[in-house]
Specification:
about 200 residues; mainly alpha; about 75% helix
């Protein structure tokens, strides 16, 4: 029997459920659909539009990546890890393999960083390809227009997704600090010392 994956990308994927991924994608998907619909109705997505989107990604993501990476380093490096990494005692019907708060916070940071890195590499590659000034290789220019809209949609959705994901990071950091606050300020148990007569 194979051991469960506890490290690496497979462990991150296992801890970060698809439910969280789709829950976080709702607002960015709605905003992306609205933006793309506006371009379909009132504008056109051509090379200059894609270049503008790529430049926007390349100007925002490096700063965002630095911010999230420094927050992740602070989370891992500071704080009382024993408080938030301790597994709660399973109650009736609870799953014993349920991730701790520490695992959830760390996983959200890791997924956010991976998405930002992927978006940065994708935009950088597009920037270089756009510099080649390639002409449409298809006889039907409709295919090229569809490709332009697909690339534009991916760029807009990716940028909106990683930006909206900061909300999850902030909530997780708040939960992390709340657990430490509640642990430090919990009422001390009464001493069972005999009272003096």
């Amino acid at each position: 029997m194979a051991k469960p994956k506890k490290f690496g990308i497979k462990a991150i994927i296992k801890l970060y459920s698809a439910k969280l991924l789709f829950k976080g994608a709702k607002l960015p998907l709605l905003m992306t659909a609205l933006i793309v619909a506006l371009f379909i109705i009132f504008g056109i997505v051509d090379k200059t539009t894609i270049e503008s989107a790529v430049d926007l990604v390349l100007s925002i993501i490096p700063s965002l990546l630095g911010f999230v990476l420094s927050g992740y380093a602070l989370l891992i490096g500071f704080g009382n890890i024993e408080i938030i990494a301790k597994k709660p005692k399973p109650k009736n019907g609870d799953n014993e393999n349920k991730p701790t708060l520490y695992q959830r916070v760390s996983t959200v940071f890791a997924v956010g960083l991976f998405m930002q890195i992927f978006l940065l590499v994708f935009a950088f590659g597009l920037k270089l390809i756009l510099k080649l000034d390639l002409t449409c290789i298809f006889d039907n220019f409709c295919i090229c227009n569809i490709l332009n809209y697909i690339v534009f949609t991916l760029l807009v959705f990716g940028l909106l997704y990683v930006t909206v994901m900061i909300k999850d990071l902030v909530v997780n950091i708040f939960n992390f600090s709340q657990v430490q606050h509640l642990f430090i300020n919990r009422p001390k148990q009464e001493n069972n010392e005999p009272s003096e007569n």
